[in-house]
Amino acid sequence: xxxxxxxxxxxxxxxxxxxxxxxxxxxxxxxxxxxxxxxxxxxxxxxxxxxxxxxxxxxxxxxxxxxxxxxxxxxxxxxxxxxxxxxxxxxxxxxxxxxxxxxxxxxxxxxxxxxxxxxxxxxxxxxxxxxxxxxxxxxxxxxxxxxxxxxxxxxxxxxxxxxxxxxxxxxxxxxxxxxxxxxxxxxxxxxxxxxxxxxxxxxxxxxxxxxxxxxxxxxxxxxxxxxxxxxxxxxxxxxxxxxxxxxxxxxxxxxxxxxxxxxxxxxxxxxxxxxxxxxxxxxxxxxxxxxxxxxxxxxxxxxxxxxxxxxxx
Length: 313
Description:
With about 325 residues, this protein is an all-alpha fold. It is about 75% helix and about 0% strand. Helix 2 (about 15-25) packs antiparallel against helix 3 (about 30-45), helix 6 packs antiparallel against helix 11 (about 255-285) and helix 10 (about 230-255) packs antiparallel against helix 11 (about 255-285).
């Protein structure tokens, strides 16, 4: 994921070389040089690589969402066990898995700027993004299926299809990163054309998929899709997000600074807001106290049908 502030770490890499002789000329010996080296190393690895506000905008929303899930976990698990919906159980477990991986990814941003941690950072980034991509694909595949039912067979088929796509995506990322040396997740490598070519293709495929769903929804074939307004609002938001990322990648290929900044902003929004947005759209209503509302709806329907007319006679 790109971070425009990562460019500053390149210019500061030579600072310790200049600070060393200066420290020896002051008469304080190697102590000052060592202190300067420590300060500059800390600044390069922790501050200038990302920036405080960048890290805070990632960590705070992700941590708050995990806390929210944990606070409601007991009541949610009771409802899941009571209603026995395999679909909701599967997606709730996936949401927890993706949220924890994403939180770790947000907390460990410094790894990509720390020598010796790049391989671990690449692995963490691949698994964190793959978990979120699995949710994206499986949600779309399940809701676009012809048989929308809470059955284990439908869920298993959806997860198999989603797992196939995500597995291919993960394999290609492994080949590009460890085989061809393309720095997909290293923010310091902002001018690598191969990196932006890969991400441009990746976002192009996602944008085309979301665009196709919207096209069918607003066409004469819309009857073949499910009448779920919340799902199409979700698709609209995801289409806009991937389109912005696609546009930013196109600009970043040419080395445009605005494209790097825009892509970094989109990545921060995606990692901090996507999982809460998915929860609110598809899972929140399931965990609400709906029994009283459901009884009220049944009563209104029966009253309109005249079942209680005899009470007034």
